Amino acid sequence: MLRAQRVGKLGNWDWDIVNEMLIWSDEVYRIFGQNPETFELTYNNIVSFIHPDDRVGNAQTVQNILLRETFGSSEFWIILPDGSVKNIQQHYEVTRDAKGNAIRAFGVMQDVTELNKLAREKELFARLLNNVPDYIYFKDKDSKFIRLNPKAAEALGTTPDEGLGKSDADFFPDIAEKAREQELKIIQTGVPQVDDPIEISFADGTKHWVSVTKVPFKNQKGEIEGIIGISRDICREKQAEQAVRESETLLRTIIDSSPNCIFVKDYNGRYLLVNKAIAALYGTSSEEMLGKTDLDFAKQLRLKPTEAQKFLEDDRTAIEHKKSVFVKEESFSLPDGATRWFQTAKIHLSVGRYQNCILGNSVEISERKIAEIELKNKTAELDELFRALPNALVYADTERRIKKVNPAFEKIFGYTESEVLGRHTSMLYTSNDSYIEQGNIRYNISARDLYTPYEIEYRRKNGDIFPSESVGTPVLNAQGELTGFIGLVQDISERKLAEDALKRSEKETKLMLHSMLNAFVLFESVFDQNGNFTDCRFLYVNDCFEKILGVKNQEVKGKTIHEIYPETEPKWIERYGEVALTGKSQTFDLYHGPTQNFFIAMCIAHMRRLRKFVSFLRTSPNASALNRLCGKVKGSTEPWSIIRLKAFSCCRESDVSMPILP
């Protein structure tokens, strides 16, 4: 008995209420961490162990025993002398005399700290599985699912319970064999599979990239009983990788399209990246330049050794001091004796694989006078840029007073330069609130979203308000100090008018479709996993379709022909499939059994890349006669081709060939 109490952390107590005597079993003393020979069982001594938050409840339990209860239970926490806490649960029975007075109480007391801790851990584990966004599953040695979290079950098109006992073959037959081989290897070797990217189709038909991690799980003896799998959706990462590749391709195109010499070098002067312009300057290809230095080319007499050494010194200055080096002018001597002059910016670069390098951008200035490089050419270039820009450009000082505008500004806003110089840009806004708002967002030293175009309305000199697409940014000097602001304004009035016209056109098109005398259907092609055309899905039907076929747009939208008309003849699907697969429009006439009508159909490939096409349907002018003829030959043993010829012999050729569109 004592051993059972110790194992179960369960003790008992006996309270002789009449004689005021309380007896604890040894296990109760052990729960309270006390010595039966030294601890005095008094009410105050016992209460001193009870957690302060539970003392009121304990007093209420005593009152219940004395006054009303026959059976009861309670739960409370105690604090032991060493500071540790325990969760105690007790159940008791009260004996009462004939008058209902409590004379004796007997109870059992159990330390449930560890039990509650285990239950809490199970609860937390269940919450983790149920709420984690990853797909988590457990498999036995036969690769059968023994547990699925809701996310994984949803991907498989099942429930956590219904998926148990099934394998990948029930959900992903195309990859099941490979997955089984991997899992067998994990079970046999104990080596996990970590972050293995794979593309799979979920139960809803959508394709997902997931990163799969599978590790063995073991029992208490250390024996492998199966695997734990965690699959994480990495579609965004894959999309980001694709975006990076596209960005790199775009960047490479931009770099090679630039007339400037653009390059990246390491500390030793080795070329790591070059564009076509600098390769042409050295009389070689971009591939041949990689890994070589200017000193290597000097040995080939493609430039002077002194020039090559100067280039290397400037490169190392930028790298060692981690700052930009601007070379106002540097010479490049060609093998034919001619000299070309360049103005070069070299920037310290530590990005990705280009660590502790320099990024160089050399602009040829051979045709300019060296004395004008610093001032005149910069001024001339800036003025030319101002004049050439088709968009209005406004340069303002730190207080947003206008300092310079370009000719396009005068054309768009109607002000001459002399009329606006020195005035606040607030005169251009539709309201003071708009002026203040743009100042808070873009025209301040802490502005971050500098180069994203935004739409805003401005006011012309004549008071007209016009929509624009603008870019605004603060201008900083080399020391990072604010020197002014630049605003670039494009008048998008015509674009807005075009957008409005497009919206009207869409409304008119919809109105036209609904006023047609022919049935109009927009279909989406349905293919099986082998790429075979199997069906069409209704995306839109007009009013005439609803009248002719007796079904409404909302009843068919999103459903396939076979879902609406299961008995549709295969010839319809075959003819629609030819249009979807070849992109060639067709006009044909067919009998449709489910609606008992002969139709003339014009099927036009529309947005083939998006697997969409349209079909115009019109009942044959002699449909009633054809139907009557079909009724007469119903049950006939004649081939359908003969029956069809007979049917159409009732129709005038001019009727059959009537145009589909009104």
Give the topology.
Layout (H helix, E strand, L loop, with lengths): L1 H7 L1 E7 L4 E4 L1 H7 L10 H5 L7 H13 L3 E9 L5 E12 L5 E10 L1 H19 L3 E6 L4 E4 L1 H7 L19 H14 L3 E9 L5 E12 L5 E10 L1 H23 L3 E5 L5 E4 L1 H6 L4 H4 L4 H6 L5 H16 L4 E9 L5 E13 L2 E11 L11 H13 L3 E5 L5 E4 L1 H7 L3 H4 L11 H10 L12 E6 L5 E12 L5 E10 L1 H23 L3 E9 L5 E9 L1 H7 L3 H4 L4 H4 L5 H13 L3 E7 L4 E9 L6 E8 L3 H10 L7 H9 L4 H4 L6
Describe the structure.
The protein is of the alpha+beta class and 662 residues long. It is 35% helix and 31% strand. The chain is built from 24 helices and 25 strands. A 5-stranded antiparallel beta sheet has the order 2-1-5-4-3, with helices on both faces. A 5-stranded antiparallel beta sheet has the order 7-6-10-9-8, with helices on both faces. A 5-stranded antiparallel beta sheet has the order 12-11-15-14-13. The chain starts with a helix and ends in a 6-residue tail after the last helix.
What shape does the CA trace take?
A: extended
Helix content percent band: 25-40%
Count of distinct strands: 25
Radius of gyration: 42 Å
Measured distance between first and last alpha carbons: 98 Å
Task: Specify the structural class.
Answer: alpha+beta
Which parts are unreliable, with pLDDT below 50 for 5 consecutive residues or more? 628-662
Beta-strand fraction estimate: 25-35%
Task: Describe what is shown at a glance.
The protein has 662 residues and is an alpha+beta fold. It contains 24 helices and 25 strands.
Labels describing this entry:
about 650 residues; alpha+beta; 5-stranded antiparallel β-sheet; 24 helices; disordered C terminus
